Amino acid sequence: MIFLNFIALLIFLPFLASADTAYHVMDVCAAVPRPAYEKMTLSVEHTESDGSSTQEKFILYGKNADGQKSLALEEATASGNTGRRLLWLEKGASKTEATINEPSLKSPKKVSAFDMKKKIFSSEFTFNSFKNRSVDDDEHELLAEKEKITINSKSYRCWKIKSVPITKTVVDYSYRISWVEKETHLPVIVQFYSESKKSGTVLLRTFRVEELAKIRGETGVAYDVWTECSMKNEATGRTSTIHADDFFFDTAIPESIFTSSWIGNKK
Fold first, then answer.
1. Is the pTM of this model over 0.70?
2. Do the Cβ atoms of 44 and 55 come closer than 8 Å?
3. How far apart are CA 158 and CA 224, in angstroms?
4. Which of 149, 157, 231, 234 is most deeply buried (CB count within 10 A of its CB)?
5. Burial of residue 66 (number of CB atoms within 10 Å: 0-12, 13-18, 19+)
């Protein structure tokens, strides 16, 4: 019996070590330092499969405190009138409130847990794209420890990790595969897959960091951030690309922005 237990340990030890490494990488990834406050301009381009495109611009306000994230997204309109708005408030480890307001709505609308799977406004990003997933929300498996990938002529050394959500009802995919860059611990590619007996394994969408940079904040601390990223719908070929600039990090933002009064104000 002791001999059989020893053989079983030899068989499963590499798998256990792999899972432990994957968990650690994703844990560090989730804890990458963020500025206490952040403000930036987001220029968004939606490119259809035929090459035609449309553009939008938003102002993003963010606050990061005690591992929780608050975001306020405001459309910058050419007329100067209030455009679409999104307010995202994380309250504790498992509670998130998202509210949207658009000129066509009479009042702000809460985003239900089910609707978190849906796309934000006209983009290919879902509401869940904003969510800080806890490392314990998924089961992680290390697929490759030394994976080299190239994006826009720049090479990255990455861990390749498969993450399977423990509770699948809150997401619209069965699992995702992330290429986590070793220097910054930021995922530079994330592919989302669905899996079913009827359709088999299907690649739903691909998130890609087009450009990384170090941005220095008001306190002198430099942060590793993406300055351009994209999300491609693999079924339709449609891609939403976000270019971020006009960064202000660690510069205080009025608390009134992260309130129901702000999301409801159409002036």
1. yes
2. yes
3. 16
4. 231
5. exposed
- Cα 267 from Cα 194, distance rounded (Å): 42
CB neighbours of residue 29 within 10 Å: 19
Tens of pLDDT, residue by residue over 30-74, are: 888 999 999 999 999 999 999 999 999 999 999 988 767 899 999
Phi, psi of 261 (to 5 degrees): -65, -40
Question: Within the chain, where are the H helices?
Answer: 2-30, 260-264
Query: Long-range CB contacts (< 8 A, 24+ apart) of 24-27?
Result: 25/140, 25/142, 25/159, 25/161, 25/180, 25/185, 26/135, 26/138, 26/140, 26/161, 26/163, 26/178, 26/180, 27/135
Length of the chain: 267
Q: Under a CB-based contact definition with an 8 Å cutoff, are residues 22 and 142 in contact?
A: yes
Is the CB of residue 197 less than 8 Å from the CB of residue 206?
A: no
CA distance 86 to 50: 29
Nearest to 100 by CA among 83, 79, 125, 81: 83
Cα(37)–Cα(70) distance, rounded to whole angstroms? 10
Q: 53 or 10, which is more confident?
A: 53
Give the CA distances from residue 155 to residues 29, 98, 230, in Å, rounded to whole numbers and listed in that order.
19, 36, 18
Per-residue pLDDT of 195-211, as tens digits, reads: 988 889 999 999 999 99
In sequence order, which residues have a C-beta less than 8 Å from that of residue 162 and are 6 or more positions away? 22, 140, 141, 143, 175, 176, 177
Residue 118 to residue 98: CA distance in whole angstroms: 12
DSSP letter (8 states) at residue 170: G
For residues 64 and 84, the answer to whether their CB atoms sit within 8 Å is no
